[in-house]
Amino acid sequence: MNLREKPFNLNDSDIEWVEKTLSSMSVDDKIRQLFCLVTYTDDEEYCRYIGQTVRPGGFMSRTMPAEACISAVNKMQKYSKIPLLVAANFEAGGNGMIIGGTMLGKPMEVAATDDPEQARRLGEVCGVEGAAVGANWAFAPIIDIDYNWRNPITNTRTFGSDPDRVRKMGVAYVEEIQKHGMAASVKHFPGDGRDERDQHVAISINDMSCEEWDKTYGAAYSACIEAGAKTVMVGHIMHPAYTRYFRPGIADSEIMPATVSREIVTDLLRGKLGFNGLIVTDSTTMAGIATMMPREKMVPLSIAAGCDMFLFTKSLDEDIQYMHKGYEDGIITKTRLDEAVTRILALKASLGLHKKQENGTLVPSLEEAKEVVGQAKFRMWSKECADRAITLVKEEKGVLPITPDRYKRVLFYSLENKTDGATIFNVDESENKRFCKRLRDVGFDVTEFVPSPGFEGMMKPVSEFTDNYDLIIYSASLQTKSNQTVVRIEWANPMGANVPIYSHTIPTVFVSLENPYHLVDVPHIRTMINCYAGSDEVIDSLIEKLMGISPFRGISPIDPFCGKWETHL
404 preceded by cis ω (within 30°)? Predict the structure, then answer.
């Protein structure tokens, strides 16, 4: 560990602060510094308790209004002796932390432009808007590679399935966001997207050989490390090939997710890739790690394996006790503890947090934030990204463009997540409604499909549809979210009442506002459009393209045909 080298690049004064701070800390102080918590509130007493009593190394903010973000950060920093790392999931824009923040575009939407400049813009939006409310750590970019169309969590959160494109987009994001006082955290090492499981609810495996991994995921991580990425987030993902490479003869039952695997964290990431920055676990509340061993063992083992920070807790006091016990039992050595805390302090010093604390500039003002968050330039960039991303996957000759003159009467089928709203991701349940409204705004007479009761012999005749509708539009808004196992269409009763059975009788257009893999469930659809996101900017651009006002420009960053021959027909 050399604090003068990349990615910390500390000077003598910075190193002096790190060493002086470390030497002043008790074992309890150091152990508490390992924790990165989560907050949803700016409640004064809660912030006081976290800052003064718990004394973590940092916290992640869930999405709140800008005023609440600044208030929470201000209070947390005020009550903390050592300045805090303040993180958020800046994956698609400032909206990852701030309600009203700019969503430039989901990573797959950005990738569909095939232009790394759009990823650089994403980094600028996240960096500028995040810093405006006091954030200094982005849990992004995601450089997972979406090889498996069945994966329920990577999907549009990735830059696609082309390793070269993922690498270029990841590097552009890292380089830009770190210009704005924000540490990037490339994730989820050693790489998601191969498996079809979600680490929130099950273990996940990257099944690549060492040679394959080096050329794909490894190349992306190496490039981001070379670009100066300050941190890496380790996922609850097994990598059997590299585990066996570093530990020949290991039993299958001993292969562990990267979070608690010395072979993957220390030997591969630190050793082979030469990463000198801070390593943080993914959320430790996920079943992907919780099912592998008792929590009492897992908590300290993550640090012993080489991670420097422990993300979230199940039970705050209990997890701190587990970490203490792991230290007392020798699972975490004094050397390993001091090394982890040194990297935490070095990251803070590299961001100038100690200097900002001293001069009172850790938290910007609300007035400053209002001038930055959601600014006109960023909104314009969001519109441009949408215009360049929307992809015409398949087209039936003669159907497009659609206008009220050609197709006045539209039957609108809405397909969306079945959710109770209890999700940590920003699942927008109004996307289809907003698309439907925009169709009406431009002059279409839109009828929303409602299934009718009836089984064989009692269903509506085909003539009832051909006599009343000129065009059918399917709008799918099935978004990835935690604790799910598939992102697939669930058809309505009775007997799949909303399946596209009239596509050979009535002109039909299928639009996916989110998941780009729906052709696997509707292979007979002949006009298919992928949008990758359902923001207002995307929907406005979609309307223009459907009506022939602007051309389709997107280049698919994945295989929308899911490797199946019949989806091409």
Answer: no
Tallying the residues shown for the chain, one arrives at: 569
Does the residue 233 lie in any domain? yes
Surface-to-core class of residue 485, CB atoms within 10 Å of its CB (0-12 exposed, 13-18 middle, 19+ buried): middle
Q: What is the DSSP code string of 487-550? A: ----PPTTTTTTS---TTTS-EEEEESS-TTGGGT-TT-SSEEE-S---HHHHHHHHHHHTTSS
- Residues 512, 515, 516, 518, Cα dihedral to 10°: -70
Q: What is the phi-psi region of residue 384: left when phi exceeds 0, alpha when psi lies from -120 to 50, beta otherwise?
A: alpha
Predicted TM-score (pTM) above 0.90:
yes
- Within-domain flag for 47: yes
126 and 78 both lie in a single domain: yes
The verdict on 303 and 404 lying in the same domain is: no
Instruction: Flag whether 349 is in a domain.
Output: yes
pLDDT-derived band at 457 (thresholds 50, 70, 90) equals: low
Instruction: Return the ∠ at Cα 197 (arms to 208 and 163), rounded to 5°.
Output: 40
Last residue of a domain, one of 345, 370, 395: 370
Shared-domain flag, residues 49 and 153: yes
pLDDT at 6: 97
> Closest Cα to residue 486, out of 521, 534, 513, 510?
521
Q: Report which residue type is found at 391.
A: T
The total number of structural domains in the chain stands at: 2
pLDDT digits (tens, 9 = 90+) for 347-365: 999 999 999 999 999 999 9
From 370, 397, 422, give the residue that closes a domain: 370
By C-alpha distance, which of 7, 428, 20 is closest to 186?
Answer: 7
Distance, CA of 548 to CA of 556 (rounded, Å)? 20
Q: Which domain holds residue 237?
A: 12-370
* Distance of alpha carbon 344 from alpha carbon 341, whole angstroms: 5
Same domain, residue pair 134 and 95: yes
**Inter-residue contact 10 to 277 (CB < 8 Å):** no
C-beta separation of 374 from 506 below 8 A? no
**Region of residue 23 (phi > 0: left; psi between -120 and 50: alpha; otherwise: beta):** alpha
- What are the residue numbers of the active site? 282
Alpha-carbon gap, residue 103 to 89, rounded angstroms: 12
Regarding whether 365 and 427 lie in a shared domain, the answer is: no
The amino acid at 496: G
Of 69, 62, 59, give the one whose Cα is nearest residue 32.
59
